[in-house]
Amino acid sequence: MKKPVAILISGNGSNMECLIKSMDETHPGYPFLVISNNKDAPGLEKAKKLNVPVKYIPNKDFEAKCIDHFRKNKPAVICLAGFMKVLSSEFIKNFDGKIINIHPSLLPKYPGLKTHERVISAKEKLSGCTVHIVNEKIDQGPILGQKKVKVELSDTVKSLQKKILSQEHRLYPEVLKSFLSTKNQFTDV
Ligand code: GRF
User: Fold this and answer.
1) Residue 187 falls within a domain, yes or no?
2) CATH number for the domain harbouring residue 28
3) Which tens digit of pLDDT belongs to each residue from 89-145?
């Protein structure tokens, strides 16, 4: 039986799009719902075009309404893909080990916002992206996978962001597939 995958977004949804497209007939999961806390998120239209049900839930009551939507169809995993709201520890505990996030740095380095700016000012030679389990500490949960990119002296925030985003698009689908395929403590669903 295929496992339901929920995806939470706030913006463009390019990672969401890659995740949805990766879930073909042979994939262990299927995208059952995309939820955005931003009604103007371009990702909502992208998901609709890919025939995935979408919901907009405003920040007020976001978590309670989200849980309502998950009552019938319990997600095996909740993928945060450019989701810009900090989730409460109660919500995280409710789905313990089943919420995963993508972050545009080589965690544990550069958690939080403005990662590319900080990487460039620190003259790092390497950066990249990380998919990790979400726990109560922002961007500090167990790491599931990473991809590295070289930071060139000529890189700007924009060029670095572009290089890393294209690696995110490869990493997130790979990690989702193995997360759903591997029977480990996190995928006991
Ligand atoms: C990505 O860089 C992701 O790592 C970060 O926000 C960005 C979202 O991009 N959390 P998109 O909405 O998937 O295009």
Assistant:
1) no
2) 3.40.50.170
3) 999 999 999 999 999 999 999 999 999 999 999 999 999 999 999 999 999 999 999
Per-residue model confidence as pLDDT tens digits over 57-88: 999 999 999 999 998 789 999 999 999 999 99
Q: Which domain holds residue 76?
A: 3-181
Distance CA 103, CA 89 (A): 19
Query: Does any domain span residue 91?
Result: yes
d(CA 36, CA 7): 9
Domain count along the chain: 1
| Best residue among 8, 15, 17, 166 to mutate for probing ligand 1, ranked by most atoms within 8 Å of CB | 15
CA distances from 110 to 93, 103, 132 (A): 24, 9, 14
Q: How far is the CA of 165 from the centre of ligand 1 (A)?
A: 7
Q: Can you tell me which atom of ligand 1 is nearest the CA of 15? A: 13
